[in-house]
Write a structure and sequence with these properties.
The protein has 362 residues and is α/β, with parallel strands linked by helices. Helices cover 44% and strands 10% of the residues. It has 13 helices and 8 strands. The model has no long low-confidence stretch (mean pLDDT 89).
Length: 362
């Protein structure tokens, strides 16, 4: 009687950057649910809008979409990509590696946008684009295994002779990588190595900022936990450890710590005595005045003896809420909305500078 084998979960191109550094994370993520946050929600809205879907966008979302469209147009002009119908646009098509892929296991990918055309030298070309919507540091195009994976899939699917890869992220310069000839099968071989390593039951696990950032297994990863413990034992003035290494460890530890706390909270919600020495305390209550009640509260403050200027001092208006309110009331968008906001705030607002923050060099 033959034993049935469970088909291994396919690697996705979007995880190749992580798997290049921590191949063991592929198996460790098996069965773990996806997690979302505000940044991911923003990314989903922006990607949906760029794909032509009807979606409600915030003012910041709209500015991000406009910046991405402008950057993409500039890249296309630089490369001489013709306009449709001379160039074909394919958005978010799920591609799969075929039989020619030199690995024991396949992989899939869904590029955000692919432009395919024939250039003046009669070569079939493709521009593969990955949209990034975060404000933080991203992997450069020439170091992105994810984008390389997308490129390999597009190359095989459409018989491309010259391939261009680009990450388009608002507020960051766009870097375009060109590949042709022997570079294409070499890139495929690199991707194949990452895919096969991810399926190796003895694959190594290595904690780090890039690979731990979006990993679903970091809250119960021994290597990630060891990094956090080692960091806790390190004195910031230890001359044997460079500040660069310490900052790298901090960035990883923060993600792991957040994940551990989230897991602990979920555990204690289900079973209050599950973690020895720890309990889930109720959150503090705070009084909130709804926006529709502010006018009446101001009137009552004046009736209680406050002058109107004194009553106004007790309230504040954030610029983001002001923008959202004007946007809803006026129906304005983009630059027209920015102009109206500037007109409303002219001479009546002040800019406060926050404390400097640490950030990776671009």
């Amino acid at each position: 009687m033959s034993k049935s084998k469970t088909r291994p979960r396919e690697v996705r191109a979007s995880s190749l950057n992580r798997l290049a550094f921590c191949p063991a994370s592929h198996r460790r993520e098996e069965g773990k649910a996806d997690k979302s946050d505000a940044a991911a929600a923003t990314g989903n809205r922006v990607h949906a809008a760029l794909a032509g879907e009807e979606v409600v966008l915030s003012h910041e979302d709209e500015k991000m979409v406009a910046a991405i469209i402008q950057n993409e147009a500039e890249v296309m002009e630089m490369l001489g990509v013709p306009k449709p119908p001379d160039a074909k646009l394919i958005r978010e098509e799920r591609l799969k590696s075929g039989k020619r892929f030199p690995a024991k296991n396949g992989f899939t990918g869904k590029p955000d946008a692919v432009w395919v055309w024939v250039d003046s030298q009669n070569q079939k070309c493709a521009l593969v684009i990955d949209y990034k919507t975060g404000y933080g540091h991203q992997v450069p195009t020439d170091e992105s295994a994810q984008l390389q994976g997308y490129g390999v899939l597009v190359w095989r699917k459409y018989g491309i002779e010259r391939l261009y890869l680009a990450i388009i992220q608002p507020f960051y310069p766009v870097q375009v990588v060109e590949m042709e000839g022997r570079e294409l099968p070499a890139a495929e071989a690199t991707v194949a190595e990452i895919v096969d390593a991810a399926h190796d039951p003895h694959a190594i696990a290595q904690a780090g900022e890039l690979q731990c950032k979006f990993c679903k297994a970091k809250e119960d990863c021994p290597e990630a936990a060891a990094l956090v413990i080692e960091l806790a034992r390190t004195h910031p003035n230890d001359l044997d450890t460079s500040l660069t290494d310490l900052l790298e460890a901090c960035a990883t530890a923060e993600k792991v710590i957040d994940a551990i706390r989230a897991r602990a909270k979920a555990t204690l919600q289900g079973k209050p005595d599950a973690i020895k020495g720890w309990e889930l305390k109720a959150g503090h209550k705070r009084t909130v005045i709804p926006s529709e009640s502010i006018g009446e509260v101001l009137e009552r403050m004046v009736a209680a003896g406050c002058s109107l200027p004194e009553a106004h001092e007790a309230t504040s208006i954030s610029k983001s809420k002001l923008v959202a309110t004007l946007r809803k009331a006026s129906g304005l968008r983009g630059g027209e909305l920015d102009e109206k906001v500037a007109e409303v705030l002219a001479g009546l607002s002040e800019e406060l500078e926050t404390m400097p923050r640490l950030e990776r060099s671009k």
